[in-house]
Amino acid sequence: MKLAPALSMGLALLPGMVSAGGGFYNSCKENWHMEGNLMITECKKANGQYMRSRQDMNLCIGNSFGTLRAADNGGFTASCGACQQGQVPYVGGQPPTPYIACSCKNGNGNQEAFTNLNLNDFVENRDGYIWCFGHRSAAF
Length: 140
Known about the structure:
By secondary structure, the chain is mainly beta. It has one helix and twelve strands. The longest helix is centred in the first third of the chain and has 11 residues, at about 5-15.
């Protein structure tokens, strides 16, 4: 069968592929934080050094009827506020989860809902820069 060579070729490509799943937390320092709409991080570069950068998370997060969602050019701060960030510690063998939590308008008048979002699901580190939906952070 010719399936095995095709499968092994596909698997050989996996290490070089860009993760759509994020996973920034595995290669960035735990001191990441939010300053308004900016996510400030120190992430490891390919040479082992750490680089500080900031990403406008309005480019990465949106509000869908009171629920934070990963969204290209989502503009979440237009309808969300009182945001906090944190890490849920190791639980049941699962790694820590970096999250943002905000109070967001739910589209029903001025009612607000408290919601959170796991940033590790869609934010990734590429050579020290934070990326989401093709948007690269800026070093500073």
